[in-house]
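Support reply, case 0932

Customer input (verbatim):
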Amino acid sequence: MEQKDAGPVGRVIGTEDATPLEFWVGVDPQRFLQLDDVVALERHLPGGEVVHIYGMVAQVRARHEGARFDSDVFLIEQGLLPAEIIEAAQVTATRFEPEMFVPPLPGQPVRVATGDDRDRALFFDQMQQKLPVGLSRNGEPMFVNLEFLDGQRGAHVNISGISGVATKTSYATFLLHSLFTSGVLGARAVNTKALIFNVKGEDLLFLDHPNVVLDDDQRERYHKLALPAEAFRSIAVYAPPRRGGAAVPDVSSRTTGVTAFFWTLEEFCHGDLLPFLFADAEDDRSQYTMVIFNVMLQLRRAAGIGDGGVRIEGKEVRTFRDLADLITEKVQSEDDGPVWAGPAIGRGTANAFVRRLYSAVRHVESLIRGDQPNPEKHRVSLDRQVTVIDLHNLHDRAKRFVVGVTLRRALEDKESAGQSGELLFLVLDELNKYAPREGDSPIKQVLLDVAERGRSLGVILVGAQQTASEVERRIIANCSVRVVGRLDPAEASREEYGFLPSVQRQRATILKPGTMLLAQPEIPVPLILEFPFPAWATRASEAGPPPGRGNGDPFDGLT
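Our regenerated output:
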């Protein structure tokens, strides 16, 4: 609820210390202040200079003045004891203009900041490229400085919150929608791409379908943000093939516009993809790594025989199971073992490698194959503005393989393209599974590379997880924008949320879906915001008819 400007909302009180960073405001009995309200006042210095002080309400209290005991409240209500109710708001300073850090004086009038005052208080007036990221509780647009997102001065977004309540994925897709449609990217929007890994259900397979349950109130919220209330215009959907037989996508809710993806055996051998099958291996690490990389060197010698198959030392291989059998034979052979497994490798280590390899076969054999004609049709391509790769039906080992290999290829493609204004946003949920705080793996190294070097290449990570405390610290530290939805109370107390004031940590445990806390470098306090309900379908039951394809091809997207 927004208050109309009716003079001062209160005055700086003198019973609490006023400092340049924090002060208290006694609220006028006819007015009110609530958490997150933005306020402004002026301090007149002895030399005549005026300092404009802006701040945000961090806490509000109400108390009886004149009462000494808890039981006095009953006497006051009966009129037997004189007392007055007074409300006071604690304000955290956000900005001083000019930068003269002096405290406000008791008695100075304080007003609610609106219009230009509000923009100055939240530094929106200094943002050359403002990306809409949501609405304040009174319906005013909130922004992030794009320079801290696109690599100019910073990059990467991290989103935390309880699964099913924090709406992490919904907010990540809203950020993409804002990036693509707000105009903030300018000419770069045409070549900016997004790669989304769908790890739960089939919710993200309908981004190109309008949401039929979107009501007029939600459309008005998009209007306030100057964003179109529409689905994504350019999307490609990939899903893993069903086990056995032809490469048919393993999805149930979407029957058209989905392409089955896989890697050929030739790509597996020549692209050094073997380590990604051991992304969760932590036992016998030093010896284990030697076996993996020695086998990988031998696989590079494989010769292609068409349709993705390979010939290794005279033997034709068309399935991943056959490849695993061949590797096992070579690693355990008394004659070939020293060559394939490496010298001085014990039989126990070689057998442990084989066991891990075979444990992956049934999970990835449909993803690595050489038995399909025209395999290039099943290669993940980033030709569309948004590419969704569905993983929800895969085992965790297969998920790690797909994510690791896809991210590495995307990073390599950006490196080979050189410096350019084109951006690639990588959206990955369950980040703690792929880059856990403890241990090491090839996929974790790729994600660290994205976090630490992706900014210079235009590769931006939008990572999400339930618990930031379980994610590699260096990845979190490299995220310029941090977003928090509903948190578990125990998680909210962790040091990873030190950027949240204590009051906001408490509030994070009761946030409703669609409400987020957002911290960015330019603003000293996190913003609380709400974002509109998705204008695109988030499940099959919400999906309206998709808009016509721009290329006019009625068979576009069919497999």
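We compared this against your earlier run and they match. Two observations from our side: The first strand starts at residue 10 and ends at 12. The chain is about 25% helix and 20% strand. Please reopen the case if you see a mismatch on your end.
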